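Chapter summary example.
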Amino acid sequence: MRKNVEIKGLIIKETKERIRKNPKLTIKEIADACFVNIAAVNYHFGSKDNLIAIVVKEIIDELKEEIYRTFANLTDDSEKNLETLINVILHFSINNSGVIQYLFLHNESLDRAAHLLLDAFFTDNSFTKKIVEEIQKVCQCEEEVVTKAKYMLLFSCFTIPLFLQASEKFETKPYFPSFQDPAFVQAYVKEVLKIIR
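The structure predicted for these 197 residues follows.
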């Protein structure tokens, strides 16, 4: 018989894996993936929304850790550093399209999702300050208001992939290339870099 800690960990792991691509994940899908009943999921987390909030926070923390690792490896090449940061955020959004859609488009939990995003990336906290400092160094920008605008541009670069990935689910062929196309991703990063610079 599995221990409660193991079951709870498995539920988080399976939910995390599935929500990366599917923002409309059901509690039944989670329970089936873990070979438990729905009551077990509710027992450990109270509700699907509580479980998803925990999982989304963990995924956001993964992005933050990846950005911190990126900062640790920055070089003297400010152009390359900024390109690296853009790539980290962009690839996070491409690989977590379900999470991004959940955060922006999931009406039932929009307030909670917005709160998670604001707390992580848009409040006066040590993480936000660190990124603003790095952008200031990379862009050699002395005006705080300009640096903060560049910060907003940097984090907004994941919204376009969100909408394009959502449009790929419709039968109408999109006019723009897919973010699954590496050449397009490279071109996109170069253009975002020009705007932020």
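To summarize the output: The chain has a mean pLDDT of 81.
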